[in-house]
Write a structure and sequence with these properties.
Layout lengths: L6 E8 L19 H8 L5 E10 L5 E8 L4 H6 L2 H18 L3 E4 L11 H5 L4 E3 L2 H18 L8 E5 L4 H10 L5 E5 L3 H11 L6 E5 L2 H7 L2 E4 L18 E4 L8 H6 L4 E4 L2 E3 L2 E4 L10 E3 H12 L13 H14 L2 E2 L3 E2 L2 E2 L2 H16 L5
Parallel strand pairs: 1-3, 1-4, 4-5, 6-7, 6-9, 7-8, 9-10, 10-11
Antiparallel strand pairs: 2-3, 2-13, 12-14, 12-15, 16-17
Helix pairs in contact: 5-6, 5-10, 5-11, 10-11
């Protein structure tokens, strides 16, 4: 007699990236001053947002979960005292426990503040993950696929990783350095950059260089990954060379929306947008099409489907082994990149072809940026 397929449970923590995101759940906030909204919601504890159903793995395993909302903006999370932030995160985790979740995923800035989930995990009975391992895997996969579509040969190209010394940045740099001819590691602190470069050079096929000037690095690169935790836009239209591919993994985004409006010769894609298997109902509109979510959320779901109720990605360090393992589990369960997207909108094959044609036209005219 065959065993019944595994049924997993998870919870994932959402929070608003912008003031206008509050209106997804509370439409009345559109009528209020932004400062009132941000300060007022600071004192509201985490609450249940929705019940997630219909997830079915290619293996036959199923999962259900819950979205828990923490009504704190990135600025509130980063500027508030850590004891206050930890208290709110643990509150959310205990709500997940009470709902029956066995793994708890931290989304967006909740996985950046403080010690990146370590304190939360110590204070909960269930497993915790930031989802950064699968985010790293899919960021590189998406960037290289986009480069292929733009006729960029990785082995003879230059890539730049903006935010290279962060947890996602370091491991994406390591993966990408196996495929490109030259890689520019970009961050604010040169000492940290040099340490990362020294670690990568012995096992990299690429020339590894460091840079603290974001714009200078972006102008040199055909492939750009942005994984910085900065809350401000870092890349503007004039910062990119014609024909470049930019994979923006950061939330909030590091690439200005104006790049899309003014540079029809550059392919900008969202990083880590994943299609979840099954007839999925998230029960909440968080700005993505049906069945689509970000890679950090997908990692939490994959762990639930696999029954891997253990702390998977925590703290600043992500190992290559973790990235390769979660990528393999994702393939086994039927998760995949959902094609190219920009600002949560699908980019058609025709649009990619038009961007490539525009880049060739500008290149023929001798225009580099």
């Amino acid at each position: 007699m065959n065993a019944r397929p595994h049924h997993g449970t998870f919870a994932f923590l959402l929070h608003p990236l912008r003031i206008r995101d509050f209106a997804r759940k509370y439409p009345v906030t559109r009528l209020l001053p932004e400062a009132w909204v941000e300060q007022g919601f600071k004192w509201i504890p985490p609450r249940l947002v929705s019940h997630v159903t219909g997830i079915r793995s290619a293996t036959g395993a199923t999962a259900e979960g819950w979205f828990i909302g923490l009504p704190l903006t990135p600025r509130t999370l980063l500027e508030s005292p850590l004891p206050f932030v930890y208290h709110r995160l643990v509150q959310a985790g205990r709500k997940a426990e009470a709902l029956g979740a066995k793994v708890f995923g931290l989304g967006a800035f909740t996985k950046i503040v403080g010690d990146r989930g370590m304190t939360v995990a110590r204070n909960l009975k269930i497993a915790v993950t930031t989802g950064n391992s699968y985010t790293a895997a899919t960021a590189v996969e998406g960037a290289l696929l986009a480069a292929e579509r733009m006729r960029i040969t990785p082995g003879s190209s230059t890539a730049a990783v903006i935010g290279a010394t962060g947890s996602i940045g370091a491991v994406t740099s390591e993966i990408l350095s196996r495929s490109v001819g030259r890689i520019i590691l970009v961050a604010r602190t040169r000492e940290h950059l040099e340490a990362l470069a020294s670690r990568l050079r012995p096992r990299s096929r690429a020339e590894v260089v460091v840079e603290t000037d974001i714009r200078r690095a972006a102008r040199e690169a055909e492939i750009v990954l942005t994984v910085s935790s900065a809350t401000d836009v870092l890349i503007e239209p004039e910062d990119l060379r014609t024909g470049a591919v930019v994979c923006d993994v950061a939330r909030p985004r590091n690439v200005s929306r104006i790049v899309y409006e003014r540079r029809d010769d550059v392919l900008v894609i969202d990083g880590g947008v994943i299609e979840v298997p099954g007839d999925v109902d998230f029960g909440f509109d968080f700005g993505f099409p049906p069945r689509m979510c970000e890679a950090c959320m997908a990692e939490t779901i994959i762990l639930a489907l696999e029954g891997r109720y253990e702390n998977f990605t925590l703290g600043k360090e992500i190992t290559l082994a973790q990235v390769e393992e979660i990528a393999a589990l994702a393939r086994r369960h039927g998760f995949r990149l959902s094609g190219f997207r920009r600002f949560e909108r699908a980019i058609s094959d025709e649009e990619v072809d038009a961007i490539f044609a525009a880049s060739r036209g500008r290149a023929a005219a001798g225009v580099r940026t």
